[in-house]
Amino acid sequence: MKRSGLVLCALVLFFLNILWGQESLDTIYANESKNVALFFPSTIRQAVVGNDDFVFSYDREEAGYFGLLQGVEGVESNLLVITSDHQVYAYILKYSKELSQLNHFIREGDGIGRIGPATESELKRDSLVMEPSHYDRFSGVLLEEKPKVMATKRKMGIRLRLEYMVYHGDEVYLVFGIRNRSGIDFEVDRLEVIRVNGSAKRRASYQEIPLEPIYGHGVPNMVKDGEMVRFVYVLPKFVLGDKEGLKLVLEELHGNRRVELRPF
């Protein structure tokens, strides 16, 4: 068994020994003919089951928010999941020929604890706004992930891409990348995030609503020639309607270069 597996098993025993002495864990039922999906509020970093009668599969290459559980008839087991925000979730697993629930949406408050000590700033809230350190920590986790491309646009040697759009609590985290292959350094004036309602062809119903970031992590003032820069915007939570989309506009300071990207 790999060292990481031993560590996870030790964590399973540690947390379950504590909880069995305090309160019973939630039970999730599974069988061999259907997939039971578990959706977590943050991406899954690691997961382990107690025995081979149950299998919990998730994307180990590109962290995702859900995993699939199956099991065969036998003794009960347990599942331990650690998410990218260091939260720990634990469940009892049992086999059942008939399943009444195939989808489990896990809330952040369902966790049994977290790895690493919580700092005072993590626990403080000023109204609904978290301390900047909270934004930095979660932004750092996102920037550690392998870059993906949800949408990209290149113009005049400047490439703007949207990598991730992640809902976390009351915020939306947008991960961007800017690559400069223009031969000239690019001074960033601003990157606007605009909510678009309707079609530009029908001006009477068309509307653009700027969305103001509440925090920026690693936002560059300049992207030098040949450089690639990744950074994060934190915005208040929003959900796009059926006829709504986003428009991202990157503009140059002391220059005329402009890149417009419409990811949705």
3D structure, described in words:
The structure is a single chain. This protein is mainly beta and 264 residues long. The protein has two domains: 3-114, Sandwich (Immunoglobulin-like), CATH 2.60.40; 129-261, Sandwich (Immunoglobulin-like). The protein is built from three helices and 21 strands. It has helices at residues 3-20, 120-123, 132-144; strands at residues 27-30, 36-39, 44-49, 54-57, 66-71, 77-83, 87-95, 103-105, 113-114, 125-126, 129-130, 151-155, 158-168, 171-180, 186-197, 207-211, 215-217, 222-223, 228-236, 244-252, 258-261. The strands form five sheets. Strands 1, 3, 6, 7 and 9 form a five-stranded mixed β-sheet that branches. β6 (77-83) and β7 (87-95) form a beta hairpin. The longest helix is centred in the N-terminal third of the chain and has 18 residues, at 3-20. The protein is elongated. The protein starts with a helix and ends with a strand. The relative contact order is 0.13. Residues 1-23 and 117-131 have low confidence and may be disordered.
